[in-house]
Amino acid sequence: MADLATLSQYMRRNGQTMAEQPAMRMKYLGIWNTYNWTDYNEQVCEFAAGLSTLGFKREDKLGIIGNNMPQLYWAQMAAQSLGGTAVPLYQDSIAKELAFVLRHSDAKVIVAEDQEQVDKILSIRDELPNLEHLIYCYDRGMTDYDVDILLSYKAVQTAGQTLNSADAGFIDGEIDKGTSSDIALMCYTSGTTGNPKGVMLSHYNLLSVAEIFIASEGIRADDDFLSYLPMAWVGDTAYGPVISMLIGATCNCPEGPSTVMRDLRELGPTGIIAPPAIWEGMLSNLQLRGADATPLKRWVFSYFTGVARQIEDLKAEGKPVPGGLSFASAIGEYVVYGPIRDQLGLRRARWCYSGGAPMGPDTFRFFRGLKINLKQGYGMTEVGGLVTLQPDDEASSDTVGRPAPGIDVRVVDDGEVQIKCAGVFAGYYQEDAKTAEVMTDDGWYRTGDAGVLNENGHLVIIDRAKDVGKLADGTPYAPQFIELKMKFSPFVSEVVSFGDGHPFISAMVAIDFDTVGKWAEGKGLPYTNYMDLSQKPEVVGLIGDEVRKINQGLPEVSQIKRFLLLSKDLDADDNEITRTRKLRRGFIAEKYGPVIEAFYGGQNEVALSLAVTFEDGTEEHIDSRMTIQDAA
Amino acid sequence: MTDTAGSGGSVKLKFDGVAKNFGGVRAVSGVSAEVREGEIFSIIGPNGAGKTTMLNMTSGFYHPDEGSINFEDTDISQTQPSKIAALGISRTFQNIALFRGLTVLENLMLGRHVLMKTGVLAAFAYWGPAQREEVEHRQRCEEIIDFLKLTDLRKTPAGALAYGLQKRVELGRALASEPRLLLLDEPMAGMNQEEKEDLVRYVLDVNQEWGTTIALIEHDMGVVMDISDHVMVMDMGERISFGTPDEVRADPRVIEAYLGTTDHKEVA
Fold it and tell me: Which of the listed residues A209, A234, A269 is the one where a domain comes to its end?
């Protein structure tokens, strides 16, 4: 591996050494369009020159908002080529959230995908005194705007072409000026508490993490990745473009958010990272489609997935697999496992990671059973997205894996996991006090997660340190454990459990509208919307059965004693979960205070006025009555 | 929406004293009107006012008994529907008329049938001109799919789609023939509020982005008044009012036709 300082320098190298090889693809108008490294360099250099004609300089911030698409990645790289910082934002954020991040990051120029994002930014323009230019990629609907800061991507590119032809060495000179300590990327952590913080990652941070990952998983130049996760999430950059720069792998952008699963299948990436929610979604979808099949196919599906599960259970317990099961599994490979991998688009995938949140053991084993090399990893934005990985033969749902080579992990006395590695960030942008809070005096990053290193050297994360509690009688209680168990049920979308300081565990359950809806249709049960469906006695009974099933596998004290079905799903727009779908417990406990009171006050019904926030930021209060069930 | 009353582009479609009888019933009698280039023109009126008959005469399904219909200076009053489609007029139907077993993409490709030049023999050979043409048409259909945000449904059979989506596909098929005049027969009928808002957005986008002239019949007064440049009101086969939405709303004859009184209240 060459020893260059910045991402842009690697990009330039790739343009010289693998000019004709694909750097990026984007599906547009039904066709995968390929851009090779020559195109990539050209696009980035033109846009970078265009940005500099707008006055974009070293250390300036470029806001980026939209779905994954080449233009946005090029813009990101263009800003970095000029020594600036890219600040990707969550594309589904409401205007109010964008205002905070854009103001805090001092973004000078913003590149937005389309009219929808432009409208959001224009609605908060008064709050952004530093904003000088707003660039849009898609022209559609942009004809009638009369706003001085608006520019099209094309126009910027054209200005760049003019500059480049007048001063051919300009961009090269800018790229040469880059140093490894330049801040390349600023990701705002969604934060389960308080306002988001801007995590500053240097070229050195990003490149070191990518090198470790490339070595651990054997990434090659001909590998294909699907760039489908939000650009604002550190992993999208760290496990996409950065790896691509270092080794030449290809990043592929899906046609749009609604076609991701279809594009995944067409592309068949050689490796993929997905949060547990996506794996759970795939599983629910498979179960749903399985239920629609003919009785024979249903039997075949359930028989062979059963075989796979038994084998995985035996392996997990370290017991030998009997010959009969191995034989059935070999047949299963042809009739069930292989075809399913193909359907999911994971046929070529050498490795699949679940990360960002813990995954339920049953979901994990289901995919392993299909001979999908699903593994768990662990990382956070502040360390460049990587701490531990699981070697292929040590995959397990109980641990998050072994600290990757070059990354030091220690567990201090109070159980907190701390990390020291090349990926540790440069600090929170303009929040020195907060940076100091998360760094120890000897330079370790404090994760705030409670964990242990087990006898095999694997890290086990118990929960967020501050979430781990005790029941009133002193029994330790980790909320995530129960919630993950419940989320294996295809009928359950989200679960929030309570128990800290209380005599028993209770849970609020949000049903999965699609699967429960389908189930209701099968039963001939009419319903109108989510609220109506969730409060049907039959549905309450259905979830009650699921709760009882889960309770059977738990010791008496850890069982869910009371539960309630929420009349709406948890939503990031309502601040209940983060954009990466982590529960914001403090906020939920406050918002659903009356529910908790009712759980432990012995009431059987609770009335709640819930604020629902729509995508345009408007709020509406919906009154609902929810009944509490006792899980006998 | 800008007010283009009295100004605007050249005349795209002109009805001149058009009349149509069905047996003894006079469905349309002596209606004259002009649709201008690039505008959204709506016909409203109570049931049986003759709105759909006007549209059917424009698309060539019926021929007027009296008067003439001119499209871009060509008299189309006695022209066959297929010829009219080839001239650049396409339409959607009040009741969805998609091929339910074909995919969204195939339905759109069918919409381009009038533009395909390849003969039967060349098509049999497939390679050569026929293939090149197919690729061109597919490209255009993909642009429409992208425009109408149907990318995830490209390969889904039209019959399996929700009602609102089928309407959108029908709009797509009408657009596939690259019409210069698009006729929409009650596009919002039977839709819920959300589906209506979606479709209105697309209709406006088609009008603004591609400059397609649109003539539409619609019952939903809110929609008509919001998006139209000109509105013609019909009752009992006659034109009773014509003008901008504001003018029509204030016209006493319109109020009478809708409410049966001459109270000076606003319609809609």
Answer: A269
